[in-house]
Design a protein that fits this description.
This protein is of the alpha/beta class. The chain is built from five helices and five strands. The chain has a single domain, classed as Alpha/beta knot (3-Layer(aba) Sandwich). Bound molecules: S-adenosylmethionine. S-adenosylmethionine (SAM) binds next to β3 and α5.
């Protein structure tokens, strides 16, 4: 399975980089995982709603440019559906069973994902109603994808 994690902006924090590298390394036993960063737009304070929408669309076009037609897209969105870790494992397992080998998880930038990205997504996944920083979201996601593979393979992991 080829999993790409498409996100906005360069990751700056060393502790997040280390955590992501650790889980990506662990995940390499189960899947090819690729982290794709697209350029972010400057998001000054006090932007109007129109400016926010324009910014999202610009970043959204860059995200869509990284997604192939045959890719199954799971967008991370606060207002999306909440799944258990077991449900994520089941989804990935079913995608593999149906021959869907290209999966992209998409994480928005500081102002979120554009409507066009959300429309392209096959599923919208919420990790809770709380807002997480987009860079921390990458680490949470890779841990959950790793956990999903451990569940799928029936291998021991933390409870
Ligand atoms: C700082 S948040 C953007 C906040 C923005 N106000 C919004 O409503 O999307 C940046 C990105 O992180 C991801 N994210 C943050 N919290 C999340 C959550 N609880 N569940 C799923 N994704 C989340 C989403 O992809 C979001 O676009």
């Amino acid at each position: 399975m080829n999993i790409s994690i498409i996100c906005v902006g360069k990751l700056k924090e060393k502790y997040l980089k280390q955590g992501i590298e650790e889980y990506t390394k662990r995940l390499s036993a189960y899947a090819n995982v690729q982290l794709i960063e697209v350029a972010d737009e400057k998001a000054p304070e006090n932007m109007s709603q129109t400016e926010i929408q324009q910014l999202k669309e610009k970043e959204g076009e860059r995200i869509l440019g990284k997604i192939g037609q045959d890719t199954h897209v799971i967008a991370l969105a606060i207002e999306g559906n909440s799944w258990t870790s077991e449900r994520l494992a089941k989804e990935l397992d079913q995608l593999a069973t149906y021959g869907k080998s290209k999966i992209a998880f998409v994480i928005g930038g500081s102002v979120g994902l554009s409507d066009s990205v959300l429309k392209r997504a096959n599923a919208q996944l919420s990790f809770s109603k709380m807002t997480f920083p987009h860079q921390l979201m990458r680490l949470i996601l890779v841990e959950q994808v790793y956990r999903a593979f451990k569940i799928m393979k029936n291998e021991p992991y933390h409870k």
